[in-house]
Please model this.
Amino acid sequence: MKKFTLLDGLVVPLDRSNVDTDAIIPKQFLKSIKRSGFGPNLFDEWRYLDHGEPGMDNTNRPLNPGFVLNFPRYQGAQVLLARQNFGCGSSREHAPWALEDYGIRCVIASSYADIFYNNCFKNGILPIFLKENKIARLFNETHENEAYRLKIDLEQQRIVLPNGDVMGFEVDAFKRKCLLEGLDDIGQTLQLKKQIMEYELRRQQDKPWLFIQ
Amino acid sequence: MAGKTLYDKLWEDHVVHQEGDTALIYIDRHLVHEVTSPQAFEGLHISGRQPWRTSSILAVPDHNVPTVMDTQISDPISRLQIETLDKNCQHYGINEFGMHDVRQGIVHVIGPEQGATLPGMTVVCGDSHTSTHGAFGALAFGIGTSEVEHVLATQCLLQSKSKNMRINVTGALQPGVSPKDVALAIIGQIGTAGGTGYAIEFAGSVFEDMSVEGRMTVCNMAIEAGARSGMVAVDDKTIEYFKGRPFAPTGSMWNDAADEWRTLHSDEDAMFDLEIAIEGEKVVPLITWGTSPEMVVPVSGHIPDPEKAPKDKKEGMINALKYMGLEPDIKVNNISVDKIFIGSCTNSRIEDLRAAAHVVKGQKIADNIVLALVVPGSGLVKRQAELEGLDKVFIDAGFEWRNPGCSMCLAMNDDRLDPQERCASTSNRNFEGRQGPGGRTHLVSPATAAATAIAGCLCAASDIHSSS
Model:
């Protein structure tokens, strides 16, 4: 998995609550059996004026000039600033795949849906929680300043603003370690193989009905 | 020390290892479908790993399958996804109900139907509506594709424990009010993020009186309230449901299992982090008016006015009204509809079809309805409905009687809304574009969908029965 340590990234503000994973990557793109290539279809229905389907040449499609991701000043953004309950709805991991493929490495929001939040960590994306008042400040500053960038330090668990102000953030210790080191968590779990086998054997003896084939 | 909640009991029974806040929990049942599994199988293959316990897996294609008789999938990308599932299941020796198997259906319908979901299990699937299986006193939740691979390779998942919430629906429901209305009432009250970080137990006399299929409908939509898992305590109805199901135990093993299942309830002195109370008598037939499942009003009510809403909700409401093509303050009953969808993992079981057929019987769908679909949840539900003659009731009224699948709930196959088309749908999500780009979804119960088909505009079953 991709490591996340330090990021100095341009911020794009997506000023909507309850952004669902159907909006992040619409269902027609879920037919792919690959993990990559979803970036051009990130927020497809908001980003383009026509209807997108898999296999289209996205470079020729008409862009929606009113959608924030298309504003020239936000091109190359790596930090997505959002509101509450980001990533709600479907469990599709295609949502973080699309964000990552587009170039987003960090999302900052006041709250997330649980499944989306977990899925981010599996894909080298750091989702940060901040309080509403801090989110509001970042939205204001992003709107008012061209080329607004944030320095995000996962080791120190802090965000450094352009004027030097610092905002701290919380993240689960295990998730933090996996991101910092880019750990393969299946490999980690398999180090506990013996314990899993013992648990399973015990379970099979105690509750054999769970193992009916 | 306080007693344990049902969730505490299920959680503790599955912890293999604990390190800080992160636990390694064992997974008893892994359900797999075609959309969220190919990348997981590919990952497994690339890393040279094998599935830990193939007998824990049950696979079925549901999202992409056509619902029209005897057709091949015309879309080559959809077809490849289903063929990839078939190939992966053959390669690893995984039990799969293929597209033409009578047991095929929506993964959350067939799990319990087969007894592949049992009380006390952990059940996971790369699908957020896995919460459905919690109706049987199981710990069931949706996972991402990386986690699908993790379960394939290790039979375990790394998880942090959620907080405990209990939603008590007291008293009794009024006639004509369905489990779907209860689900919408709950989401309308706590909001789509109200359950985030919680496991929700649904309790109270309304759930005690509710059928197990009704409980599935409510647990299914726990995720729409933000909770990864919803659950209901085991009772006699739960245990009775599993008798004779293919994967359920028999003989003395059945008795041992049933004894254990009877312990799957919260202790009387269990402590919850949050308790919510709803009076059953006050729940009425509901409908969503906007683009989030929390945007709920009574079917007998009016579209809300953003100007009268709290400031932080106003902009979202204005956006939703614009997308839905609706004006504030109009009567819900005056909104005409183009399509009807009765199906999905929320409402495609036999009781749902019976409820809809009861409303439809002897009537015709309105002229303005361009398509009314009934999509049973599984081949076995379909067969049962046909034995009861429900297919004829629907077909005589002008509905199309289709083959099982996810269908127009998320429109990955050919069943979908065209831009600006309005649909009364028994599914679970009214997000922008969910049922087709530009499509407008109103989430309703099966009875309300059926009544709306007859009237041509949004209405409750009592509206058409009192006027006829």
User: Anything to note?
Assistant: The longest strand of chain B covers residues 163-170. Chain B has a mean pLDDT of 96. Chain B touches chain A through 76 residues (CB under 8 Å).
